[in-house]
User: What shape does this take?
Amino acid sequence: MVVEKHISFIRLFKIIWRRLLTMALLSALIVVPFVYFELQAYAIDLTAPLILGTALSIFLGFRTNSANERWFLARGHWGIISSASRNLGHTLCRRHDGAINLETGKKSAKAAKVMERMLRRTIAWVWALNRQLKDRADPLEGLDKYLAAEELEILRKSHNPAREMLYFQSRDYRIAKTEGQFTDGEHFEVVAILRDMTAAQTSCEGLKATPFPRHYSFFTDVFIWMLIILLSLSLPKVEDFGYLAIPLTVMVGWVFSMIEGIGDYMDDPFVDNRNVIPMDAVSTKVERELLAFALGETNIPDVLEPVDGALY
Assistant: This one.
């Protein structure tokens, strides 16, 4: 997620310079013969590029709005993930009063162990889901400090480790419940939190598995190149622009390309680029808070800082 206030044109130029060069060469291929051989009489008027430009603007408006909607939808899912993880931490935290069995009034060593395991697994779940959505090779890398060895072995064989962790959470919740750890209200709260986690993960996976229709991107690109050609065929005649038609055409193409590029970059909110949902930052925040307030640890990771003006 880009957080810098001023966008670096040097960084943008590094991304788009090849496309601009191709536009300039294509435009020059048409404009130079028109001007050199004085063929302006055979140039077309601006009606065709104006109509295409208007249609392309509407097309790009829909494309960009849809991409923005997908991005904010994904960010909303991760807001739910963060909120559910915190709520689960509040409900399972027993470090101040001990894991007291509400039926017998005695401390339960078994429940204390199980609930701490659930808290640590919550941290692992957030990171594993993060990495799965980013298509990382090993979503469980570095999570051995939060997961038991036998559980980690099972997860490494699973096609969806994050989903498997939610099953383990439900299993341990039932163990803690039999140890008298929850009131009726807390019982329903934990069930609701685990349901929200499952729903958020399912929504994220569904959003990732359903990309924006590719024909929009394909035909948007086709229409931009058609506009470059039509402008090159018309601008040499308008106001006798001459060779100046080449940079003007490239400028118009650059504007439309940037708008299309923004939509293309935001189309998949889970890809590792500067417009990605800041899942690493959210995961780090969840990790810090659960370790600090729920588990009472002092060795917590640092806050994730932006890298080159972007938060990942």
Summary: Residues 47-92 form the longest helix (46 residues). The CA atoms of residues 9 and 279 lie 26 Å apart. The two ends are 6 Å apart (CA to CA). The chain has nine helices and no strands.
